[in-house]
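Weekly structure sync, notes
Attendees: PL (lead), two postdocs, one rotation student
Agenda item 3: pending single-chain targets
PL asked that the sequence for the first pending target be pasted directly into the notes so everyone works from the same version. It is reproduced below exactly as submitted, 261 residues in total.
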Amino acid sequence: MWMHSIDPVALQLGPVQIHWYGLMYVIGFAAAWWLGNRRAAKPDSGWTEQQVSDFIFWGAMGVVLGGRAGYVLFYNFDFFLTNPLWLFAIWEGGMSFHGGLIGVIITLIIFSRRYQKNLFDMGDFVAPLIPIGLGAGRLGNFIGGELWGRATDQSWGVIFPAAGDGLARHPSQLYQMLLEGVVLFSLLWWFSSRPRPRMAVSGLFLLLYASFRMLVEFVREPDTQLGFVAFDWLTMGQVLSLPMWLAGAFMLLYAYRGIKR
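Predicted structure, written out during the meeting:
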């Protein structure tokens, strides 16, 4: 067992605090920009460095705004109804992956029209750029001592002081970092390194992320304000991931079974 005692503040400059979690966002966006430029430099990529830079900038806005809106609407809707301005209280924290994903999809739709690109071609290009940011974000969650797992008697259990009960818990943030970051990136980067049918890469991203998220949710502590949202065992994260899984499975079948377009 290990007592979590990591300082979430990476750097303090007078009254300004720079948190590790915020730095993880920077790492994620920087990695996406670098990887995107590597892919754009390949012959017939259909992308320029300027287009990659533009998309990363606006995609980052989609992640932040969508992530915040998703957290408020998916996880704290009742509080939002009585305090609608809380939607803009970003400094209080609270982000949702599924909301951020919606923000990125909206950005993809806008850019596909602006640059006259096929929406699914853009999704296939962007999907492998995302997992490093996801992994970095989960590491930020662990450093910040938040979004911990359920109680465990395993030797690698971690006591998170913020939980307030002194119980050793699964470091579910690290499980997610490994699966959503390392494993997902490795598989998608390998899969997308060779020509694939349109929407196959996007479909694999949705299918794998949803599978990993639903799996880890079984050892992750449900959100206090929600608890289990269905059948006394399904969490909000699992409910939101199910449509992703179905969409990913359909896209892969559509891509490889030659459904008439």
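Discussion points:
- Strands lie at 2-3, 9-13, 16-19, 158-159, 168-169.
- The two ends are 55 Å apart (CA to CA).
Action: rotation student to compare against the earlier draft before next sync.
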